[in-house]
Amino acid sequence: HTNIGNVRETFFFNQLNYKLEVNSSKQSDFLVEDKYTFEVGGKNKNKKQTSSIPNSFIVKDTIEIGTGNTIPLWLFGFLY
To answer: Is the pTM of this model over 0.90?
Structure first.
């Protein structure tokens, strides 16, 4: 069986790692360019894990439109 969380995170990593430095983070899923923190999840992912972290974003699968610091996962497909 495929783990959907791994699929989401692999997609996100592949899209950004093409041009940017992407590392794992102790506080969330990814730290990009040593500045931006990203937590990747499904539509029910909340801000609890990143609320106290500056420059942090929630990346959600299965949403069409983002608001605030929430970004739809599919938009990262345009970066490659």
So the answer is: yes
